[in-house]
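Project standup — Tuesday

K.O.: blocked on the structure for the chain from last sprint. Re-posting the sequence here as requested.
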Amino acid sequence: MSKLDNILIYQWHAWNGFLISHLTADYCRMEANYDDDISDIERHLTPNIRAVLLQVNLSNSAGFPARRPQLIQALKERNLLVLNTEVDDISKSTLHQLLEKAALPSAKATENGPEDQLLFIKTNLNWGGGAEQRLPDELRGILPVQQSALLKSWDSYYTIKRRDIRPELWSDPGIVIENYIANAENSFYRVYGFGDAIVIVKAHSDALIKKISGHPDDKNLLFSKRQLAEQKTGLAAGLQQTIQTFITHYPLAYFCLDIVHDTKNYFIIDLNLTPYAGANRQTDEAVNFLCLGAHGYIKRKLQEKSTLA
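H.V.: unblocked you, prediction finished:
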């Protein structure tokens, strides 16, 4: 399938190398600015556009652009679908709360526990707060940014035994401490969702921070959301339930989840609304499947709106 050309990608630092650039036509994007209102977007709303996908690469995008709620409402009044308005904070502490609300376990650690248990020290901001560091100085005092002075980048994450954790780490709002989850085959799962399509990558990595790196044992599994709901996947029961429960509670149109496991229990450790792809752009089969899922989703949602009108 050719790239999607009916979705406008409203993006801030989320195009080159990002998965969405492999799924949608290059001319169907605009660079977002903090002061944008509907007049700035209207010239990009060509007759082919049926939906707008918000792609603001910040852990908390609720305040970007400044008039975000008004912009969303104005787009809806033009009979456009506005995708990914349900969640605007993907920081790890908020993810823990989202999981709790959905009755799903999180990897969040507590101060009390076995002293020799291995814990994982991370920044609360996604990707070590790298996106927030790109904000111009005038916006850093406006937008909610909790950058830790003790941990400044994603490649500074580390594991440590509970007994060796300094007290200031527990009290630093810019840091989260999680249980370190591992398994003998060093496997983890990445879940991409776009519309009605779900691509699950069973990936492998010996690194501390799990990233897809083209391991020969990696494989893609392609499912529709209906197949997941009807449990027609052949997935491990715990993995199936974790994914299905999350997407039921948070029906995002476009997202990525990272899931780690110990072979019995599955934990969502990352939610990303602007997933990066880089050189690992996924297979043509996966890309086409995601495009078809988005196309079907937009068509169905517009038909539903037309019926209700």
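K.O.: great, moving the ticket to review. The chain is about 25% helix and 25% strand. Residues 118-179 form one domain.
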